[in-house]
Amino acid sequence: MIVLANDGISGKGVQLLKDSDITVLETRVSPEHLSSFINDNQVDVLLVRSATQVRKNLIDECPNLKIIGRGGIGMDNIDVEYAIDKGIYIINTPKASCKSVAELVFAHFFSLARCLHDSNRLMPLEGETKFNALKKSYQNAVELSGKTLGVIGMGNIGIEVIKIGISLGMKILAYNRTSKTENIQLTFFDNQSLNFEIKSVTLDEVLKNSDFITMNIGKTKDYLIDYKELEQMKDGVYIANTARGGIINEVALIDAIENGKVAGAALDVFEKEPKPELEILMNPALSLSPHVGGNTIDAQNRIGEELAQQIIKIKAQL
Questions:
Q1: Can you give the residue ranges of the D-isomer specific 2-hydroxyacid dehydrogenase catalytic domain (predicted)?
Q2: Which of 291, 302, 305, 306 is flagged as catalytic?
């Protein structure tokens, strides 16, 4: 069996596959050459992350593909149903990167709440000459403890976000597309644990009552957060989107920042990715990262291992 990891795979994943007599190709192949590379090299398994698109035409052009794997959660870059109809196995790693994404949410929230996103830009430029002025400009910073965290989406990432929020002493309001109750356990370094029951509430309740709001929901057809939803929010709210571009109307978000409704926002994903609008990139109230939610060594090791284990299991069945 031959695997093409077109968007990369961890060393641990590679080793597991090689130990099972599976060949791993780590060549990064451009979209226009992908189908010919797969066919010329008799590739059985195509592994991708978010960069590579696996659409119907590629599936049709590569009749020998047996498995398509996505390192991560979202499958919107793969025509999943079409591939399944063609008899191809589809695998992903829905839990492997959840902790990393959740931690990024709070990295951005802390950065916004303490103005670090701005001070990191200005200190190298003005720290020597305007130190006291910069210090004074950041005196309206806020704590997260005691604030209300609104979590939109109670999937695997949303649950990890809730856990961190609870550990920081935040109040939790969570919305899910379908009503649900989650029993969440926090386990500490000394093996003590605490259990919390989180019941979903309406989106309106989350929007109206939260100080910090995070998007942890799958791709939506239309904007989930538009002018109307932004207007419902508290004045001075902080927002983070580490889910998918297009969940928030970016033009409406900029307007809400400029009129003072939104104190700051964090974006790890963008409507026009990989070329975000310049107005987004240059706004001083935004904390930005280039879609790196799952980009930690820890998450990538788990992703590689989980993909490898699934491939090995399927190989034994073929």
A1: 8-314
A2: 291
Domain tally for the chain?
2
Respond yes or no: is residue 273 known to be catalytic. yes
The four Cα atoms 225, 230, 233, 238 give a dihedral, to 10 degrees, of 80
Q: Is 244 a catalytic residue?
A: yes
Q: Please check whether residues 180 and 51 belong to one and the same domain.
A: no
> Which of 108, 244, 250, 306 is flagged as catalytic?
244
Q: Which two tokens stand for residue 83?
A: 């591939």
Task: Decide if 108 is catalytic.
Answer: no
End-to-end alpha carbon distance in the chain: 11
Amino acid symbol at 20: S
Q: What is the pLDDT of residue 213?
A: 98
**Same domain for 201 and 55:** no
Taking the chain (318 residues) in consecutive chunks of 10 residues, what is each chunk's mean pLDDT? 96 96 96 97 96 96 97 92 97 95 98 97 97 96 98 97 98 97 96 97 98 94 97 98 97 98 98 95 97 94 97 96
Catalytic residue among 103, 182, 205, 273: 273
CA 120 remoteness from chain centre? 23
